[in-house]
């Protein structure tokens, strides 16, 4: 799956530094809503484990799902502020609350060659590591799953096992913020808390719905700021051994990792405010829209929020630039009905 993400983000999505006036508001939204998660270093035993499975982790590091959800805690309670530049250099701080829209967790399962006991009894945990992988939890989950594995492979037989999925279908007005939803779901599936990114195969992903709640200063009504967004994020740090480059959807910075969006879908997007001519982030708009749709086809799932957003769009034009993003019907995001 690493090849899918190899060129997932165009170069303009990761500018080194640029003047604030040259960056589109859509780009600012993506920057300020990117999850920033504490990163951990794999123990030597964990590195050996992943290599035995024919996979490895970029930078030999990982993050825990528990830390991922913690990164949404404050945003879920108060919203995340996004600076929006309006006409005549006027600016406001628009706040968005994250909601869990969809998630799928896959594990990377292997079975040794028949008669080969190498590694079968290896202790994959490091007694000195406080952030070891959750082998016991994965073993229990695998026992509950039916794996379609071939008996003819030479060394290892591998498959991706779907161990958890959830797709929100309730109208936005009836939803609870992401952190609260995770607490609810983890009471039924503990893996949402104790699994790590290196336990999950490359088909594991997360979609977050972002709805506007208020802005500072309040001022006049700005319909252009009523846009709602779906962002898509990879939550696996595994790579195949033949991959020479890291996942471009993950940016590693010392003790933390940024989970950049590899897909984006919008509802109620209006071009002039979000996609000003000549700003960084314009071509990224259509690219990320296509990427999210291609990804959902790849994993072969029905994502209710995506289907709703997609069914209410018309192309948005900004000068000679066309962005095929969602466009609204005459309803507020919180009043959407299926």
UniProtKB/TrEMBL annotation:
On the tree of life, the source organism's domain of life is Eukaryota
Listed Pfam families? DUF789
Q: Which InterPro entries match?
A: DUF789
- The molecule here is called Uncharacterized protein
What species was this sequence derived from?
Ceratopteris richardii (Triangle waterfern)
């Amino acid at each position: 799956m690493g090849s899918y993400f190899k060129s997932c983000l165009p170069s303009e999505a990761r500018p080194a530094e640029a003047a604030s006036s040259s960056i589109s508001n859509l780009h600012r939204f993506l920057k300020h809503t990117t999850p920033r998660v504490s990163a951990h270093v794999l123990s030597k035993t964990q590195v050996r484990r992943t290599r035995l499975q024919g996979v490895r982790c970029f930078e030999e590091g990982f993050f825990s799902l528990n830390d991922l959800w913690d990164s949404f805690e404050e945003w879920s309670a108060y919203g995340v502020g996004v600076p929006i530049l309006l006409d005549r250099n006027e600016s406001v701080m628009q706040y968005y609350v994250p909601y869990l829209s969809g998630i799928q967790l896959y594990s990377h399962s292997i079975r040794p060659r028949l008669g080969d006991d190498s590694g079968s009894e290896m202790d994959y945990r490091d007694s000195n590591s406080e952030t070891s992988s959750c082998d016991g939890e994965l073993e229990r989950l695998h026992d509950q799953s039916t794996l379609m594995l071939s008996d003819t492979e030479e060394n290892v037989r591998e498959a991706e096992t779907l161990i958890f999925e959830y797709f929100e279908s309730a109208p936005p007005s009836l939803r609870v913020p992401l952190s609260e939803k995770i607490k609810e779901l983890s009471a039924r599936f503990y893996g949402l808390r104790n699994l790590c990114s290196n336990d999950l195969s490359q088909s594991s992903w997360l979609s977050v719905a972002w709805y506007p709640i208020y802005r500072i200063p309040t001022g006049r009504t700005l319909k252009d700021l009523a846009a709602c967004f779906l962002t898509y994020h990879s939550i696996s740090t595994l790579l195949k051994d033949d991959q020479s480059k890291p996942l471009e959807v993950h940016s590693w910075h010392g003790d933390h990792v940024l989970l950049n969006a590899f897909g984006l879908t919008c509802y109620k997007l209006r071009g002039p405010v979000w996609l000003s001519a000549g700003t960084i982030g314009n071509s990224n708009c259509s690219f990320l829209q296509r990427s999210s749709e291609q990804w959902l086809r790849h994993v072969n799932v029905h994502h209710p929020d995506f289907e709703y957003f997609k069914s209410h769009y018309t192309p948005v034009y900004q000068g000679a630039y066309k962005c095929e993003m969602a466009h609204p019907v005459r309803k507020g995001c919180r009043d959407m009905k299926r």
